[in-house]
Design a protein that fits this description.
Number of strands: 12
Structural class: alpha+beta
Shape: globular
Largest sheet: 5 strands, antiparallel
Radius of gyration: 22 Å
Helix content: 40-55%
C-alpha cells in the first residue's frame, strides 16, 4: 500500500499521523507480508522501531473467504475417509482470525520476548504497547541478514543457524507449550554464530498439557522405547489412527518412521531437501504407497498447525543441508529425557535455562 495509505491507518489507530508521533518515519516499507507491511521509525526517545501496519480491508476479505470453505470440507472428506474435516477447518478459521488482530499478536510476541529474554542466541523483539492497536503493531527494530544471504555462509555457520532453529521450535513446543505457526524464512533475521531473531507472531498455537503429553508419548514409544504396539495404542487413543484399523504395527511404524528418522539414532546426520520433500509427500498425498494407512488416519485439530511447524522446519533445515547429532540435541529439549548439553550452543543455552526455569516455562 502507498505511504499515504499506511500513514492514514496509523492516524486512525493512534490518533496522530506518524510524522507527529515519531521523531522520524520512513514512508518506504522495509518488509511486506500477506496482511500488512512494515515501516522503520525512530521514537522521540531515540529508539529504533518497526511498525507493522495492516492493509485496509484485508480482514473483510479473509472473513469472506472463510465463509466459503464448504467445498473444501466436502473434498477433504472424500479424499481422506477417516478424516474429520469440520474440526480441522474450525481450527484453521480460529487461527487465521486471531492473526487479523494485532492485539493478539502483541500478546503472543511479548510472551516469547519475555520468555527468551537474555537468551544467548535467540532474540524476540519486545512490543511497544503504547504504539500498538488492533491494526498497528510496533516493536523494537531488529537487525540481521535475510535468509538468502545467510544461505551463502559456509556450512559450519549454516549448521549453527539450523541448530538454533531446531532448539527454538522444540523448546517452545515442549517447555512453553506454544509456538509460532508460520516457520517461514522471511520471519527470521540472522547473525553469525547461530544468532537468530524470530519475527511475526500472528499465527501462534498454544498447546494444552494433554496435547503435549500425546506428542511426548508418541516420541517415547516410537523413538526412545521402540515399542510399536504401545505406539499404536497411543495414536489410537489420541485420535490419529482409527481403532481396529486392519494395518499391521510394523506397517504403521514404516509410515510414520520417516518423520522420526533423523532423531532415532545417536549419530551425526544431514537433513536434505529430498528428506523434507519425502516427509511432506508422505503425509499429504493419497497417491503414494501408504494410501492403505491414510484412509484410517485422522488429523486432530492440535496437529494442524503442528504439521505446518514441523514440515516447515524440515524444509528450511533441508535447504541448509543442516548437519548435527539431532538425537542428542532433541534429548536436551524433550522433558522426558532432559539430556545434558551436547554442543557449544547447548552449553550456552543450558546456562541460560538454569536462570529461566519457572512460569511460563514447563520444567518437567
Amino acid at each position: 500500500m502507498s505511504a499515504d495509505l499506511a500513514a492514514g491507518v496509523i492516524e486512525e489507530e493512534l490518533g496522530l499521523p506518524p510524522d507527529q508521533l515519531f521523531a522520524t518515519w520512513d514512508p518506504e516499507p522495509i518488509a511486506s507480508a500477506s496482511i500488512g507491511q512494515v515501516h522503520r521509525a525512530m521514537t522521540k526517545d531515540g529508539d529504533a522501531i518497526a511498525i507493522k501496519v495492516q492493509y485496509p480491508g484485508v480482514e473483510q476479505a479473509i472473513r469472506a473467504d472463510l465463509d466459503n470453505v464448504g467445498p473444501l470440507v466436502q473434498f477433504m472428506g472424500m479424499v481422506f475417509p477417516a478424516l474429520e474435516p469440520e474440526p480441522i477447518v474450525a481450527e484453521l478459521r480460529a487461527r487465521l482470525l486471531e492473526e487479523l488482530d494485532y492485539r493478539n499478536e502483541s500478546m503472543n510476541q511479548q510472551l516469547f520476548a519475555d520468555s527468551y529474554r537474555d537468551h544467548p542466541f535467540i532474540h524476540v523483539p519486545s512490543v511497544l504497547c503504547e504504539f500498538s492497536t488492533g491494526r498497528v503493531l510496533t516493536s523494537e527494530l531488529a537487525e540481521g541478514v535475510r535468509f538468502s544471504e545467510m544461505e551463502t555462509w559456509d556450512q559450519s555457520e549454516r549448521d549453527l543457524t539450523a541448530e538454533t532453529l531446531f532448539r527454538y521450535v522444540f523448546r517452545s513446543l515442549f517447555r512453553l507449550h506454544a509456538f509460532n505457526g508460520d516457520p517461514h524464512p522471511g520471519n527470521y533475521l540472522f547473525c553469525p554464530g547461530g544468532h537468530v531473531t524470530f519475527l511475526d507472531y500472528g499465527l501462534v498455537r498454544r498447546f494444552d498439557p494433554s496435547e503435549v503429553n500425546l506428542l511426548q508419548d508418541m516420541i517415547t514409544t516410537m523413538v526412545i522405547e521402540r515399542d510399536l504396539a504401545a505406539f499404536r495404542s497411543v495414536i489410537e487413543e489420541g485420535g490419529v489412527l482409527q481403532p481396529g484399523a486392519p494395518v499391521e504395527d510394523e506397517r504403521i511404524a514404516e509410515y510414520v518412521g520417516l518423520y522420526y528418522d533423523f532423531v532415532r539414532d545417536d549419530k551425526v546426520a544431514t537433513l536434505t531437501a529430498e528428506y523434507a520433500s519425502a516427509t511432506a509427500r508422505r503425509f499429504v498425498t493419497m497417491q503414494g504407497p501408504f494410501r492403505d494407512i491414510m484412509k484410517w488416519t485422522n488429523l486432530p485439530p492440535a496437529f494442524v498447525i503442528l504439521q505446518r511447524i514441523n514440515l516447515g522446519l524440515y524444509a528450511i533445515l533441508g535447504r541448509l543441508r543442516a548437519t548435527a547429532n539431532w538425537r542428542l540435541i532433541a534429548e536436551e529439549l524433550w522433558p522426558m529425557t532432559d539430556g545434558a548439553p551436547s554442543t557449544e550452543l547447548g552449553r550456552l543455552e543450558h546456562e541460560w535455562w538454569m536462570t529461566r526455569q519457572g512460569p511460563p516455562w514447563i520444567t518437567a
